[in-house]
Amino acid sequence: MTRSLASRTVSHAAIILFCVIAVFPFYWMLTTAMKPREDIFLFPPLLFPQHFDFGSFPLVFELMPMAKAYWNSVQVAVLTTVGTVFTSALAAYAFAKIPFKGSGFVFGAFLSTLMIPFTIIMIPLYLVFSKMHWIDTLNPLIVPTVLINAYGVFLLKQFMMGVPSAYVESAKIDGAHHFSIFWRIMMPLCKPALITLGLFTFIGKWNEFVGPLIFLNSEDHFTIPLIIASFQGVYTIEWGLLMSAATVAVIPIMVLYLLTQKYYIEGITLSGVKG
């Protein structure tokens, strides 16, 4: 009994320690955003601000087109998320529930695209998008991800393989075609996996830096990460403004995760077990 209690105590202490380590950067970001400029560089640093200064938050929107960048990021993240979830679910349903010759090879070739680093294809993509007159538009950030997302297809396929095929066969007997089965049966049953993929996609696009850096030229089309990077000068960094911008940028992700964490955990668990 004593050994069991000691083991649980150590486990809980380790979990609390890891939680503190994980949360501390966000705490430091928030407190730095609320400190007066002279308190930011104090040594030893202040773990809790003695004076609160919220002036850097409105200043972020005054000095940079933060509101426009917010809207651009919302467009990219939302459109990409909705499109990716739909197209990935369609492909996953085909691989999981529609037998066809060579499906294993096609699926393997599809997954092999995950091994191609973006640094290898970014120049060819730039040349292609330049010919299409897509440079300095949001299209290169949305369309490629919607058209092909190997990880999304893999995640949803694993989940759909765990759905009994009897549902599909029964629907076929009743005269339903594949799209009707996909939309009315498979999509509701795969809700946790769909939300999980949507959360992954939204966070990935909201935080994406390299793609916007390459394909966007004007501030009117900048996304949040590019605007935040603009607060870093060649010789100096405005830490108060930088942390205020980062705090404002992280709010949508935190709210979205808190609203969907139940489905997120369920989707990850079931997708890993099934199949």
How would you characterize the overall build of this protein?
The protein has 275 residues and is an all-alpha fold. It has two domains: 1-53, no CATH class; 59-273, MetI-like (MetI-like fold). The chain is built from 14 helices and no strands. Helix 1 packs antiparallel against helix 14 (239-273), helix 4 runs parallel beside helix 7 and helix 8 runs parallel beside helix 14 (239-273). The model has no long low-confidence stretch (mean pLDDT 84).
**DSSP strand content:** under 5%
Domain tally: 2
Q: Output the CATH class name of the largest domain.
A: Mainly Alpha
Structural class: mainly alpha
Largest sheet: none
What is the straight-line distance between the termini? Answer: 39 Å
Question: Outline, from the CA principal axes?
Answer: globular
Oligomer: single chain
Please state the CA-atom Rg, rounded to the nearest Å.
Answer: 23 Å
Q: What share of the residues lie within helices? A: over 70%
The topology string of helices and strands comes to HHHHHHHHHHHHHH
Q: How many β-strands, per DSSP?
A: 0
Q: Which architecture name of the largest domain does CATH use?
A: Orthogonal Bundle
The pLDDT mean sits at: 84
Q: In CATH, what is the homologous superfamily of the largest domain?
A: MetI-like
Output the CATH topology of the largest domain.
MetI-like fold
Number of helices: 14
Q: Are there runs of 5+ residues with pLDDT below 50, and where?
A: none
